[in-house]
Amino acid sequence: MIEIEDITKIYGETAVVDRVSLVIDPGTICVIVGTSGSGKTTLMRMINKLVEQTSGAIRIDGEDIAGIPAYELRRRIGYAIQGHGLFPHRTVGQNIATVPKLLGWDKKRIADRVEELLTLFQLDPAQYRDRLPNELSGGQQQRVGVARALAAKPNILLMDEPYGALDPVIRAKAQEDLLAVQRQFETTIVLVTHDMEEAIHLGTKIAVMDKGKLLQHDVPQQIIANPATPFVAELIGSAERPFRLLSLGKVADHIEPGEVTGTPLDAGVTLRDAYAELLWSGRPALPVTRDGKVIGQVTLAQLARLAARPQ
After folding, report:
1. Cα separation of 51 and 38, whole Å?
2. Can you give the pTM of this predicted structure?
3. Is the CB of residue 245 less than 8 Å from the CB of residue 311?
4. How far apart are CA 173 and CA 265, in angstroms?
5. What pLDDT is recorded for position 3?
6. Is 137 helix (H, G, I), strand (E, B) or coil?
7. CA–CA dist 12, 181 (Å, integer)
């Protein structure tokens, strides 16, 4: 658990983070979102002492980080940034091994961990372990950056705009990789982004910041359905709001009985994707399958009703 209590950071006469308090539950993803200059990155960097707070307290599992040396704290917390930040003259394997070596792990344990993470991120160890970062694609470099951040099995992973430099297709894949890894290791993740779409997709909870203040901290459904301020509502976007609501639900939860023809939809797709397919195909309903077997239908009329009001 991360407890942030009345935390403030002042530069000169400006409070870039102004008396922010929130609790991040263990094993969840907290996405901090806001426009440029809102204080979101400064807030996150105070968790691992890359920025020292002016006042307030941050506790991890009840321990005030003020009493933990910065170098020791950073070895316990993974950190991944936009553009990956890999050491250019170290191989992929050496990059991933950085923190385990600092912690004094033996060679076999390090080698096993490097292989485990490369395999997890679908990078064949025999093919990628000895490559240099400039021999990888942007998406591969980003995966290695996250693998390096996870190498010492930290309970907490901080991510600062990690996917901002990736194209939309690679970015979507990287987000799915992150969700899969987070479910497997139950890591507590704090992720900073300016992209509300990304926040809704990844966040267990979303913290919305503006001008150093925390405006709202809640689950995505509540942020979308009940924005606390006009700024939060603007960030969500009134035109996109119905589609953002649909992106949170799965077809599996809204199957209706009946048999229809057309390209089937898997039960695991989002309601937003189903709505788009129905509109593009011009059909009032499409069959829904699970494990290749038709189990019912989803209708355009039902999805239009769901999009029209908070759920």
Report:
1. 15
2. 0.81
3. yes
4. 20
5. 97
6. coil
7. 40
